[in-house]
Design a protein that fits this description.
globular; about 0% strand; 12 helices
Length: about 350
C-alpha cells in the first residue's frame, strides 16, 4: 500500500503566520475605514486633547496652591467665557458698524472706476446673489440645525478636554500595560513630550493671535485703513492657518486700502510686512521657540496634505498632527530619548509642570 508523503514540519507554522498576517491586515483596513468615517469625531477628540494639554500647566499650578483640579478647570472655562463676553460687549458693536459701512459703500459707489471700483463692485455682486426674504425660511432652518451641531461639537470638545485633564495618566497606564515593561517608560515619556508640545503650541498661538490683533488693529487705525478693527481681527485669526493665512491677510489689507488710496494700501502692506518680520525673527524664536519642532517646509507640506486629503476645516490641526507624527518618529526611528528632549515652555515651565 502506498503511503502519502508526510507534510513538511514548517507547513502548520507557515499557515498560522499567514493567517495572523492576513487578520492583522484586515483589521488595520477596517480600523482605517472606521476612523475615516468618524474623522470628525476623531478630530474633535484630538482638539480636546490639545486644549487639555494647554490647560494642564495652569491646572497643575493651581493644584499646587491647594485649588482642587475640578475648580481649576472650571476657572479656565470661566476665564474663556469672560473673554468671549468681553469680545461680544465691546468689539462686536464696532464690527457691526464697520460691516454696515462696508455694505453702504458697496451700494453707494456703483459707478466708481479703477481698482477701488473693482473691489466695491465685487462686494456688490456678492450682495446681489443673496436670497430674497421669501426664500430664507428653509436656509434659516438649515442654519439653525448647523448652529446646533456647532454648539454640540463645542460642548463635546470642552467636556472631553476637562475629562482628559483628569484621566490622561490613567489612560496612559492602561495603554502601556499592553507593552513589555522595559518599553513602558519610553512610551510614557513620549506621550508626555507630545502633550507638552501640543500645550505649548496652543498657548503660543493664543498669545500670538492676541498680540497680532492688537498691534495690527492699532497700526491700521493710525494709517487710516478702513474697517481697521474688523481687518485687525481677521488678520489675527488668519494666523491660525500656517503659511496661507498671512498671505491672505496681506492681500485682504491691500484690497481694503485700495478702496481709499494706493498710499493707504502701501502703508497697510508695509505694516503687515513689518509685523511679519518682527514675528519671524524676534517673537517666534523667543516666545514660541520652535514649540512643535517643525521646519517651515514641513509645515507647508503638512498643511497642504491635510487640506487636500481631509478638507479645509482640518487644516487647523495640521501642525499639531504633524508635530505628533514627527515626535513619534524621532523616538521610534531616530532613537531620541523623550525624557531628555528639549521641552518647550510658553507661559509655564513645562519641566516643572510634569515634575511638580
Amino acid at each position: 500500500m502506498l503511503r502519502s508523503s508526510p507534510e513538511p514540519e514548517g507547513a502548520p507554522s507557515t499557515a498560522r503566520k499567514a493567517l495572523v498576517a492576513t487578520s492583522v491586515a484586515i483589521g488595520v483596513i477596517v480600523l482605517a475605514l472606521a476612523l475615516w468615517k468618524l474623522r470628525v469625531i476623531v478630530a474633535l477628540l484630538f482638539v480636546a486633547m490639545t486644549i487639555a494639554a494647554a490647560m494642564r500647566p495652569g491646572v497643575d499650578w493651581l493644584a499646587r496652591h491647594r485649588v482642587p483640579r475640578s475648580v481649576a478647570v472650571l476657572l479656565h472655562y470661566l476665564v474663556l467665557i469672560g473673554l468671549v463676553a468681553l469680545f461680544l460687549s465691546f468689539v462686536v458693536p464696532r464690527l457691526v458698524t464697520e460691516v454696515q459701512a462696508a455694505l453702504d459703500a458697496a451700494h453707494s459707489h456703483p459707478g466708481v472706476q479703477g481698482v477701488k471700483g473693482d473691489v466695491l463692485d465685487a462686494i456688490q455682486r456678492r450682495l446681489a446673489h443673496l436670497p430674497k426674504a421669501d426664500k430664507l425660511l428653509h436656509p434659516a432652518l438649515t442654519a439653525g440645525l448647523e448652529a446646533v451641531k456647532v454648539l454640540v461639537g463645542i460642548f463635546f470638545t470642552l467636556a472631553t478636554a476637562a475629562y482628559w485633564v483628569f484621566e490622561r495618566d490613567r489612560f496612559i497606564d492602561f495603554v502601556t500595560g499592553f507593552f513589555a515593561r522595559p518599553k513602558r517608560k519610553k512610551i510614557r515619556d513620549t506621550w508626555q513630550l507630545v502633550d507638552l508640545k501640543l500645550g505649548a503650541f496652543v498657548r503660543g498661538q493664543l498669545l500670538l493671535i492676541s498680540a497680532v490683533g492688537t498691534v495690527v488693529s492699532t497700526a491700521f487705525f493710525i494709517i487710516g485703513e478702513p474697517y481697521w478693527l474688523l481687518l485687525g481681527i481677521v488678520v489675527a485669526l488668519l494666523e491660525i492657518v500656517p503659511v496661507i493665512g498671512p498671505l491672505a491677510a496681506l492681500l485682504l489689507a491691500i484690497g481694503a486700502g485700495l478702496t481709499v488710496s494706493w498710499h493707504t494700501a502701501a502703508f497697510a502692506a508695509g505694516a503687515l510686512l513689518l509685523v511679519r518680520v518682527l514675528q519671524d525673527y524676534i517673537v517666534n524664536p523667543r516666545v514660541l521657540g520652535g514649540v512643535v519642532g517643525l521646519s517651515p517646509l514641513l509645515v507647508l507640506i503638512a498643511v497642504s496634505v491635510v487640506g487636500v486629503v481631509l478638507g479645509p476645516f482640518y487644516v487647523l490641526i495640521a501642525v499639531p498632527l504633524a508635530s505628533l507624527i514627527v515626535t513619534v518618529m524621532d523616538v521610534g526611528v531616530r532613537g531620541v530619548e523623550p525624557a531628555e528632549a528639549e521641552v518647550p515652555a510658553v507661559i509655564f515651565s513645562a519641566k516643572e509642570t510634569e515634575t511638580g
